[in-house]
């Protein structure tokens, strides 16, 4: 169960009930909560004996839930496409932390000193935001290796790009780079700075395109590009397209590199549970009632996208992938005979949106080479296979919770990537070959690791992000 701080937070959130709400149903977790969606009620649901005080919120349990199927059958079904057009609940976005000046790792004593300095810069960054935008007790803050290890992280990636370009299509084609989800634009600037300084011939042939879903981040990227004389020098090489990758419609026949750093964890997933006896998958749905309470239920009819995911995964892996129930039929049977045994398995969260991203690559970027990095596992994830971390920040403290059914717009839902399955699916869809390695191994190969070493010999570039992997097209 969630902690008292979560109870306090929920009470605060529910004290302010948004206007014009209506009950709705939608596919479980099919809305990326980093671009949060909403849907609330005009019609209060049947009062279930609660007092009308400042908040009706109370902690949910799975013990003997009420049967409200008849009431629920009347609710309208809302798809992802319809949710995208809504502006309430808040479509607030997380802020990406920037440490300001790059860290001087060589002058630091050890990792502990780096941690302390990082903490100090975090506080300074939030103080500045509070000063500029007013206090925001539920502000979400992300940090990424691009920002923490700038410019070294970007330089490592630039070395990879230049070497591979020189070994393959140089001088017949330009060095064409696409970056999906560029955050503050830091990676783009670090890569271009490096190529300009290290290889002017290649720099003359470089073009950099950003595809960014968030309009505020796209604006920040342009602002950073034009902020100094040095960065303005790159301006004629850069195009920023403010669009979701899923709305991309331009065919790019030329060879190009496609970067996706820390974006897969944003992509929404479908929630699935299995009938433990028959192994049949059931599609998860979420119903939001007139009080804004969430209910999860499972139906036999699979969403066509989820059904395709299962077919592609099966073909790509030869049926060899993890399952959220025992593979031995006897164990499965026995598990249903335990007292209070559930008839369905634990939840599995399948990366349907990631599969659609590979469709976009295959359709519009036939000659691409992908370079992507993301978390391969996440501590404090909720229960289930490939399950996300669901967290919010309250008064500058990270608060993880135990369910994905949370107040829209206030929580960050962050999925791990199973790189073995992802690699197999990518190969099946694009017909290309890949290599997967740890973040540390990639950095040992392409970064000048002495730049990020502390005096004790500890190296935060290698010791942080141990739970991240890198996948490249070969
Ligand atoms: C965690 S941030 C990572 C930012 C940056 N790559 C970094 O590592 O610092 C995720 C980025 O992906 C963007 N994003 C999420 N979904 C996207 C989509 N469907 N199309 C394009 N960009 C997307 C977000 O707006 C954000 O810029």
From TrEMBL:
Transmembrane intervals: none
Q: Where is this region: Disordered?
A: 24-54
Keywords, comma-separated and alphabetical: Methyltransferase, Mitochondrion, Transferase
Q: Which Gene3D superfamilies match?
A: 3.40.50.12710
Which biological process annotations from GO are given for this protein?
A: methylation
- The reply to whether Methyltransferase figures as a keyword in the UniProt entry is yes
Molecular function in Gene Ontology: protein-arginine omega-N symmetric methyltransferase activity
**Cross-referenced InterPro entries, in alphabetical order?**
NDUFAF7, NDUFAF7_sf, SAM-dependent_MTases_sf
Instruction: Give the Enzyme Commission number.
Output: 2.1.1.320
User: Which Pfam families does the annotation name?
Assistant: Methyltransf_28
What GO cellular component is one of the record's annotations? mitochondrion
Compartments where located: Mitochondrion
Q: What's the main place this protein lives?
A: mitochondrion
Q: For this protein, what reaction is catalysed? A: L-arginyl-[protein] + 2 S-adenosyl-L-methionine = N(omega),N(omega)'-dimethyl-L-arginyl-[protein] + 2 S-adenosyl-L-homocysteine + 2 H(+)
Per UniProt, the ranges with Basic and acidic residues bias are 45-54
Q: Which family does it belong to?
A: Belongs to the NDUFAF7 family.
What biological function has been recorded for the protein in this entry?
Answer: Arginine methyltransferase involved in the assembly or stability of mitochondrial NADH:ubiquinone oxidoreductase complex (complex I).
Supply the name of the protein.
Protein arginine methyltransferase NDUFAF7
List the source organism.
Hypocrea jecorina (strain QM6a) (Trichoderma reesei)
Q: What is the lineage of its organism?
A: Eukaryota, Fungi, Dikarya, Ascomycota, Pezizomycotina
């Amino acid at each position: 169960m969630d902690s008292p701080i979560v109870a306090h937070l929920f009470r605060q959130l529910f004290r302010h009930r948004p206007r014009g709400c209506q009950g709705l149903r939608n596919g479980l977790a099919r809305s990326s909560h980093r671009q949060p969606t909403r849907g609330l009620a005009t019609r209060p649901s049947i009062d279930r004996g609660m007092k009308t005080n400042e908040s009706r919120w109370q902690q949910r349990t799975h013990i003997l839930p009420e049967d409200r199927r008849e009431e629920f059958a009347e609710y309208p079904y809302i798809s992802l496409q319809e949710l995208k057009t809504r502006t309430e609940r808040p479509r607030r976005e997380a802020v990406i932390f920037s440490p300001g000046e790059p860290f001087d790792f060589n002058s630091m004593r050890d990792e502990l000193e780096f941690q302390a300095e990082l903490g100090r810069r975090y506080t300074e960054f939030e103080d500045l935001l509070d000063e500029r935008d007013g206090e925001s007790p539920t502000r979400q803050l992300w940090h990424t290796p691009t920002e923490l290890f700038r410019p070294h992280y970007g330089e490592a990636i630039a070395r990879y790009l230049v070497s591979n370009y020189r070994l393959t299509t140089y001088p017949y084609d330009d060095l064409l780079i696409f970056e999906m989800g560029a955050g503050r634009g830091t990676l783009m600037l670090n890569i271009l700075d490096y190529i300009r300084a290290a290889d002017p011939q290649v720099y003359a042939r470089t073009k950099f395109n950003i595809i960014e879903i968030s309009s505020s981040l796209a604006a920040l990227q342009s602002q950073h590009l034009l902020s100094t004389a040095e960065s303005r020098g790159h301006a004629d090489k850069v195009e920023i397209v403010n669009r979701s990758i899923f709305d991309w419609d331009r065919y790019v026949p030329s060879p190009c590199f496609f970067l996706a750093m820390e974006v897969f964890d944003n992509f929404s997933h479908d929630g699935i549970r299995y009938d433990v006896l028959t192994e049949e998958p059931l599609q998860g749905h979420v119903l939001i009632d007139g009080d804004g309470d969430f209910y999860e239920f499972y139906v036999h009819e699979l969403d066509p996208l989820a059904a395709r995911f299962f077919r592609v995964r099966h073909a790509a892996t030869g049926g060899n992938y993890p399952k959220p129930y025992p593979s031995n039929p006897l164990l499965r049977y026995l598990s249903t005979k335990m007292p209070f045994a559930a008839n369905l398995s634990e939840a599995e969260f399948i990366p349907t949106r990631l599969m659609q991203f590979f469709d976009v690559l295959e359709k519009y970027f036939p000659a691409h080479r992908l370079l992507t990095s993301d978390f391969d596992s996440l501590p404090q994830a909720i229960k289930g296979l490939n399950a996300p971390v669901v967290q919010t920040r309250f008064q500058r403290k990270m608060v993880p919770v135990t369910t994905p059914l949370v107040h829209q717009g206030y929580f960050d839902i962050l999925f791990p990537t199973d790189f073995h399955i992802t690699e197999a699916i990518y190969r099946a869809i694009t017909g290309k070959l890949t290599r997967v390695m740890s973040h540390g191994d990639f950095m040992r190969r392409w970064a000048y690791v002495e730049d990020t070493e502390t005096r004790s010999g500890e190296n935060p570039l290698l010791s942080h992000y141990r739970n991240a992997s890198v996948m490249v097209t070969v």
